[in-house]
């Protein structure tokens, strides 16, 4: 004999059974542990993002507490003027407002605010766009004018009453 004790088939079956039970018990536990670690890291990233958003909002709130900033925004966004002043809006040759000069401290209008315009502003914009398309089409296509014959080629039928007379 080689010096190693031989393992009986019964002991081997018991050992394999124990290993199967351990793997059945541990695999779902390890899986849920790893899944929860992923969720925790995602939540930490979300918390960091929200903290940054809160800091941005705090900074914006502090800007709005400054009366000069409020006045500047009222003039820029709402076109407010003091009594006696005249406001001018510059429009380029395509009928659109000229680009802002990008002054320092002027808040840009967010894209969500631009998309959430009142319904009548959206209708007016669509009318302007449609009018531009009609003007371009009229400019590119020559008009065909057909002469109208003042005398009909055959006589018109007599007009009858409802009685058929």
| Rg over alpha carbons | 40 Å
Overall average pLDDT: 79
Q: What is the beta-strand fraction?
A: under 5%
Distance between the termini: 133 Å
Query: Shape from CA axes?
Result: elongated
Low-confidence parts: 101-106
The helicity comes to: 55-70%
Q: Would you count the extended β strands for me? A: 0
Query: How many separate helices?
Result: 4
Fold blueprint:
Blueprint: H1 9-64, H2 67-77, H3 111-115, H4 119-140
Please summarize what this structure is:
With 165 residues, the protein is an all-alpha fold. The chain has helices spanning 9-64, 67-77, 111-115, 119-140. The longest helix has 56 residues, at 9-64.
Kindly describe this structure.
- With 165 residues, this protein is mainly α.
- It is built from four helices and no strands.
- It has helices at 9-64, 67-77, 111-115, 119-140.
- The chain is elongated.
- The protein starts with 8 loop residues before the first helix and ends in a 25-residue tail after the last helix.
Features:
mainly alpha, 4 helices, elongated
